[in-house]
Amino acid sequence: MDDASDTGNRAAAMPDDTTIQDTLIHDPDAGIERLLEIMRRLRDRETGCPWDIEQDFSSIAPYTIEEAYEVADAIDRSAWNELQGELGDLLLQTVYHTQMGEEAGHFSFQSVVHSISDKMVARHPHVFGNDPRDKSAEQQTADWEAIKAAERADKAQPGTLDGVAVGLPALLRAYKLQKRAARVGFDWPDASHVLDKIAEETAELVEARDRMDQDQVEEEFGDLLFVVANLARHLQIEPEAALRRANAKFIRRFQGVEARLAAQGKTPQDSDLAEMDALWDAVKRDERATSD
């Protein structure tokens, strides 16, 4: 057999890139590399999924936010059997963005991993460096914020409020903005002052409503929400979590009202406010009796 034919036979025997990739995609034990290859294949301009090919950072961002909230929802409900899947969905969002970043030449999955790893090491000198570990939680928080402030300065973000993401839900962003301001001393000394401010903002909202100035009503309502977010911080409550809990409670109790109406062969449309309010109070009493 001559050298040319021998080389050809060896080449024919070697798997091509597509075969290797197919093997990776269908290997359940391949880990993160499998997911990265699946996303690369979905985005392939010639053989990928038309929908996935059309997406960009802006179109995918809402899904990323939604998946993060679904993770939080599973945790709130202690739905541990669902949490694995929700975390997978959230991980897919990171993989999606990094694939698009690599295609555009901005970054890659590996560079993102390197970046966050470097950041975690730099922000924990008491674990990975020479700083002592015997610090109070308050001192560790102060050190953490000092490191983050230095990072913002390196990014030409010297302002106290710089770097608080604009895309956060408004209630959470209000909470974070006030938390930042409090770190430099711009804060009420205790929650009683915040409660006084809530009373003041409520009165201003009533005045605006009485004047029938809708633009002013919206402004005053926003001020009231902003101060309520500050009260949450003083009470060491994360306002988004508290509101999610309140939403869940409302759904549970209203469904209880619907169930009691259904037992009478009625729907909310067949009822009135007085009847539904009485049933609401009954549902509340039953909940409290059960929890006692």
UniProtKB/TrEMBL annotation:
Its EC number is 3.6.1.8. It comes from Sedimentitalea nanhaiensis. Belongs to the nucleoside triphosphate pyrophosphohydrolase family. It holds the Pfam family MazG. NCBIfam families: mazG, PRK09562.1. It is an enzyme of class 3 (hydrolase). It catalyses: ATP + H2O = AMP + diphosphate + H(+). GO terms for molecular function: ATP diphosphatase activity. Residues 55-128, 194-253 form the NTP pyrophosphohydrolase MazG-like domain. It comes from the Bacteria. PANTHER family: NUCLEOSIDE TRIPHOSPHATE PYROPHOSPHOHYDROLASE. GO terms for biological process: dATP catabolic process; dGTP catabolic process; dTTP catabolic process; dUTP catabolic process; response to stress; TTP catabolic process; UTP catabolic process. This is Nucleoside triphosphate pyrophosphohydrolase.
